[in-house]
Amino acid sequence: MSQATSINQRPLQPFHLAFPVTSLDNARAFYGGLLGCPEGRSSPEWVDFDFFGHQLVAHLAPQEAGHRSVNQVDGDDVPVRHFGVVLSMSDWHALADRLTTAGTKFVIEPHLRFKGEVGEQATMFFLDPCGNALEFKAFADIGRLFAK
């Protein structure tokens, strides 16, 4: 796999994110099945996923899973604790269609945010089966990812 280049021209490094889940079986079905993330190493307490080239580790910790707070962003109640990936616009549309077909209940339906502004982006929020919030977004011009 070739390494992508970040907006500021440094090689883009994979990130590592560990997060709590209520069930490893549900995490496997959601991240491995619905999102198509290959599984890596695992134990009875955790499982690694290749999350679009990044290392995502689901740790069994039922008391810590889920989101609790929201902030207003462009008129939407955005879960404060969330993670996700910036996709190409075509991949974002394909994922939105796949999630819709699978009956995913969106916290924030797929739509354009900051329409007509420098930060215009396609976005959608949904919960994994353990209550963790995910956001997937896309920019028509990826060069505007960090534009002010």
From TrEMBL:
It comes from the Bacteria. Gene3D superfamilies: 2,3-Dihydroxybiphenyl 1,2-Dioxygenase, domain 1. Pfam families: Glyoxalase (PF00903). This is VOC domain-containing protein. InterPro entries: Glyas_Bleomycin-R_OHBP_Dase (IPR029068), Glyas_Fos-R_dOase_dom (IPR004360), VOC_core (IPR037523). Residues 13-139 form the VOC domain.
